[in-house]
Amino acid sequence: MLLTKLLSQSEGKTLEFKRDLSSLKPILKTLVAELGLMEEWGSGYRRVIESCQNGGYPSPDWQELGSAFRVIFYPHPEIKVAPETAVPVNVPVNVPVNERQQWFLNQLGAGNKVKAADVAARWKVTEKTAKRDIAALKKHGIIEFIGAPKTGFYRIKETSEGSPA
Asked: Is the whole-model pTM more than 0.85?
């Protein structure tokens, strides 16, 4: 009945919608899609799916986001995606850290209580160099020292929300 009414009103006319399809009722959206009017409007979703299939790619996912939509394309099955390297979330992107500092942060992240002497021994550098490395991390606000100088320890500084900086 709805189809008959729509077609009888549209004979000899171009169907125009003043609003985008996301605001139409679901049955009308289905009707417009089944009539092939979406393809005439140039959406090309069928051609996108066919192109993916012809190229050996997985079919994309389509997500409706209110008045917009998102298409998620996946890599070709034969392409090996390299795993992401493990970078601690507490190291700000704009703060360059050297290997010793990275090791120090990894140790703190693992829950180990390390000091300058541990860095010096592990990397075969002077304790003075290790202290400079640690001081730089402190200066950038990445770590903090808790407690007395002899019995205290370093830890990754937490933000106000309770997560690492």
From this structure: no
